[in-house]
Design a protein that fits this description.
single chain; mainly alpha; three-stranded parallel beta sheet; two-stranded parallel ribbon; 19 helices; globular
Amino acid sequence: MNWFLHIFEIFTRMGWLIMTPTLLTLCGKALGLTFGEAFRSGVRTTGAIFGLNLMVNSLGSGLSLVIADIALNHQLALEITDAGWGAASAIASASLISAWIIPLYLVVNWVMLLSRCTRTLNLDLWNLWHVAFLGAMVERLTDSLAYGMVTAAAMSVLLLVFSDRCGWRMARYCQVPGASVANGYATAAVPFGLLAEHLFNLIPGRPRLVLDRSTEPRAALASPVAWSFFLGILLALLAGRDSYGILQLAMTFGALAFLAPYLGQALSGAIAPISEGVVTFSREKLGIKGNLYLGLTPTAALGNGTVVVVTLMVAPIITFLAGSIPGNRFLVQGDIVMLPYIMAVIVIVCRGDLVRSLLAGVLASASMLWCASSLAELFTLGAVTANAQAYEQLGTISNFSDGGNFLCWLSVQAGSYGFAGMALMVVIAVTLAVWNRNRIVSGADVAAMRPRRVRRTPELPATQEAPETEGDPPALEAAKPEAPPQAE
C-alpha cells in the first residue's frame, strides 16, 4: 500500500500554489473549457488567492502583536499556553490518518456527490490536515486508528453539509458563483452564523446593517475603511501605543480594508470562466436546481472589508471576555492570526450584516475558547508525543483554530464512549447527509437565490427621449440587490 499512499503524498508536497491551479485547470477542462481558458483561469485565481493571503498575513501579524500588547498592558493571562496552529499540525502529522486523509476524503466526497447528499466538490486538499487532526485527537484518546478514521470520515460529511450552506451566499455576496468553503476549522463556524441569522430574523422587519461593499465608498459611516481605521486607533490605545504607533496601526488596518474588495474583485474575475462552466454544467448536464460548488480555501472569502471590520471588533472582545467565560483557562494570542478566516465564513453566512456577524463571531469565539480549555490536556499529550522537544517545556497547551473547534470537542466526547459514541456519530452524519439530500433534490437549499424584484421607472412616452445618465438614478440605488443572483 505504500505506492498508493505515495501518489497522494506527491500532491501534498506540491503545496497549494501548485495544487490549486492544477486542480482548477482539470476541473475547467472537465467542464468544457479549452485547456488555455482553464489554465489561465486557474493561474489567475491562484494569483488572486495569493494576494488575499498576503493581505490576511499582514492583518494577522498586526493583530497578534496588538493583542499581545493588550494582554500585557492589562495583565490578562490564563494558565493554558497558546501553541498556535503548528502544534495542531504536528499532532495531525504524527498520526497515520494524515497519510490516508486525502483518499478517505475523496471517497466520502464522491459518494455524497453521486448520491446528491452534497453540492460541494472540495478542491482544498492542501488543508485536509485540519480534518486529519480531528481523527488524530480521537485516535490519541482511544488508542484506536479505526476510531480515528471513522471520526475523520464522519466529520468530513458534516463539513460538506455545512459547506453547502455557504455556496449560494458566496455567489450573492462575494460574486463567486459555483464556489464554496469546506475547510476543517473555518467551515465549522457556519452553525453560529446560521444561529445569528435565525435570531435576527425573528425581529419584525428583519433589520440589516450592511457596510458599503463598493471599492469607492461614498459615505464614511458605511465604509469598512473608516471603521477599520477607527478600530485600529481603539486597539492601539488599549495596547498602550504611542502616537506614532496609533497612526501606523490605524493606517495599516484601514489600508487592508481598502485593499480587500479589489482583491475580491480580482478573484471574482479570475474564476469567472470556471464558475460559468460550473453553472452551465449543473443546468444542462445534470439538470439540477441550483449549482454544484467547488470547495476553495477560506482565503477566497476574505475579499471584503467587512471581514476586516468584524475581525478587529471580535478580537478585543474575546480577549477581555476570556477570563469571564465559565470553565475557560485559555487566552488566544499567537493563534489569533486564524481569526480572519473564521470571521470570513461567518460574514458570508450572515450575508455581510455587521451586527449579525459580530454576534455570531463572539458566540463562535467564546465557544472555541471553552473547547480549547476542555481539550487542553489531550491536546498537550498529543503535541508532546509528536514533538517533545518543541512542546514539553510549555506546560499545558492548546490552540484556537483546531483545539477550539467545536467539532473536535464533539468528536472527543463521542470517542470517550467507545463503540457506542462512534456509532452515534455515524448515525448523526448519515442523518444530516440524508436531510441535506432532501433539500438538494427539492431545491429548498437554494430557494433564497430567487431573483429580487427591482423597482423600475415607468416607460417614457414615445415622443420623449430618455435623458443620458451614467449609472443608476439615485432613486434606484437603494433598490438594487446586494449582488446580482445567478440565473438557475
